[in-house]
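Re-running the complex after MR caught last week's input typo. The corrected sequence lines follow. Everything else is unchanged.
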Amino acid sequence: GQNIDQPTEMTATEGAIVQINCTYQTSGFNGLFWYQQHAGEAPTFLSYNVLDGLEEKGRFSSFLSRSKGYSYLLLKELQMKDSASYLCAVRPLDSSYKLIFGSGTRLLVRP
Amino acid sequence: EAGVAQSPRYKIIEKRQSVAFWCNPISGHATLYWYQQILGQGPKLLIQFQNNGVVDDSQLPKDRFSAERLKGVDSTLKIQPAKLEDSAVYLCASRETGDTEAFFGQGTRLTVV
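Corrected-run output:
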């Protein structure tokens, strides 16, 4: 089975940097996704990590350590519009290509 | 490019009634997912289709939930009879074979009273 843990809520200040952690325990692992979800809207894709290391995409970066079962999403130069839920999702090691989501981290960006 | 379309956006029903949700995935996307998202939680996979075949329905409560994707395009998810704990947002997503990203629709918010 899979167990995915994320902090429930975080608060940060506009212009700052915030790191959202995700730890997972899976019986098999084929990659990790980060999705952003604004209240009442659809989740939108942010990043996908398969190999260890840091993937940078503009203000957002995602890191993966497979040996530690750990990932984080780093958001730089925070903007008010970054207030949203951030969902960590694991792709299990099977042929189905399904996503198993954590409960999500609600990020509140304050002025 | 048109996104994943879902209808209705909102639905309120009484417990023990039936309800159906519809999803039209992005054109050409072979994989279609239905997720249930209870308030404050992450999406939980209910069923995954590859074309018109079921890949995974291990978490679908089959005594009351059913889903079909008859022609490998549109899909419907039905609940019969509904329970209070079925109140949630039902998200449909689709993915093109060989692609990484799954695209989500805006969901149907179901309230069972």
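None of the earlier attempt is carried over here. The mean pLDDT of chain B is 94. Chain B is about 0% helix and 50% strand.
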